[in-house]
Amino acid sequence: MSTGVPAGGAPGLRGRKAADPRRWKALTVCLIAGFVTWLDISIVNVALPSIRIALDAPPSDLQWVVSGYAFAFGLVLIPAGRFGDTHGRRNVFVFGVALFTLASAAAGSAPESNWLIVARVVQGAAAGVVAPQVTGLIQQLFHGVERGRAFGFLGATISISTAVGPLLGGLLIQFSGGREGWRHVLHVSIPISIVVMILAYLYIPGRVGEKGQRQSKDPMGVLLLAAGVLLLLLPLVQGRDWPAQRTWLMVLGAAVVLAGLVSWERWYGRRHNPIIDLSLFRRASYALGTLLATLYFGGFTAIFYIVTQYLQESLHYSALQAGLVSAAFALGSAMSAALGGRVVVRFGRPLVVFGLVLVTVGLSATEPTVRLLSGQDTAVAISAALFVAGLGNGLIVSPNQTLTLSAVPVAEAGAAGGMLQTGQRIGASIGMAAVGSAHGIYAAAFQHALLVNILFVLAALAAAIIDVFVERRAGRQPG
Fold first, then answer.
1. Second label for 306, Cα 20 to 30 Å away, from 45, 146, 227, 282?
2. pLDDT mean over 414-434
3. CA–CA separation, 189 and 270 (whole Å)
């Protein structure tokens, strides 16, 4: 992907075009689109009980409604980013938003659960088209300190939109009715998306990629990645309905396909631009940072799924009440995200380690809450624990992106950023499927799913600690 750095890489004014006066307005349009597409990952969580009743949907279908979106999102990120680089980011951005709008309309009008799943997968793919155009436009329009600020705003938008989704969904269901309110949850993005498309033509420059930048899309790499992740998701989502033998065969098949993906990308990368540039992973900090992001999003994104399901299905909270509890995480994230962006260069990876410790403490505190408390006391205690976890989250997402990409040469930043986002989305889809596979009585299922979340976060913490030691041993400077 284009990095926005002028030919020759000169950091000064010579050879660099004047900054586009519309760049901050363009960023605002991009962040609104990013907010809407990331919001749809979590906003649907509070609507799942209503969807289950209205469409008579089995648990596995509800899991696909959530995981299918994240899966498709992650799958198209890199090919869509390359297409935007070579054909003009504004047009691809508008196409993605338009497709997202149509898919949202189809999802909210679904007469049965299979229709809804397909529409959600298309929604996720459309979101995956939009996301790399946003990061590409930031790299194109901003330089130096301004670029860091722009990425900081993007990181805060990602964290807050995902966390505030259950609250907004709860409000919509509260005021539009429990049985059919879920349709409004899926339709809420339509008017916003229409406005975004209009503003995009006013403020986003229509610049196209430079000649000679056309890159192969690596269709075989995309197919192998899709097949490998799908084989991992299937036994997680359908495991309770399948015999154990079939589940293990799926996991084995996923391992074989993903191993084939690595071999293919190594061979393909000698001649063309592969979807996964394996050479980037020779840099320890980039490899560990990408692993950290994949694992953390496997735990972080799924938190809202299990919390809202437990509060609604077990404690019989309304969608709004469940959303208010989840909003504590958004509040904590908002308070710490700005601080994380300012001090990440000073503290480096230890800042992310501290954030992961806070998330682990917050999530761990919810287990005795469920076991020892009941009624409104449970909601208050969970809110407090999620607030602590949210404080940690604000010190993880954007700082980790900054640190991970700082280990990569500017010329490779576009591809590196695309793979980092792909890891986040695939991690989210696997995490959603993993926590959704917990079943039994509601309190026990919640505790088991929470344990899965904590294990994902602890694995991310281990990756961060290893990188701290690698950094010190290599004598690298933070950031």
1. 227
2. 80
3. 42
Q: What mean pLDDT is predicted for residues 444-459?
A: 87
Residue with tokens 């071999």: 263
* CA-to-CA separations, 233 to 42, 263, 429, 440, in angstroms, rounded: 18, 22, 8, 20
Report the C-alpha gap between 59 and 71 in whole angstroms: 18
> Do 47 and 108 contact (CB within 8 A), yes or no?
no
CB 184 within 8 A of CB 108: yes
Neighbours of 194 (CB within 10 A): 13
Q: What element of type H or E holds 65?
A: helix 59-87
Radius of gyration of the chain (CA): 21
Question: What is the value of pTM for the model shown?
Answer: 0.79
Given a contact cutoff of 8 angstroms between Cβ atoms, the answer to whether 451 and 74 are in contact is: no
Dihedral pair phi/psi, residue 408, rounded to 5°: -115, 135
Residue with structure tokens 């996964």?
276
DSSP secondary structure string for all residues of 330-383 = HHHHHHHHHHHHHHHHHH-HHHHHHHHHHHHHHHHHHHHHHHH--THHHHHHHH
Report how far apart the first and last C-alpha atoms of the chain are (Å, whole number): 22
Mean pLDDT of the chain: 83
Contact 450, 40 (CB under 8 A): no
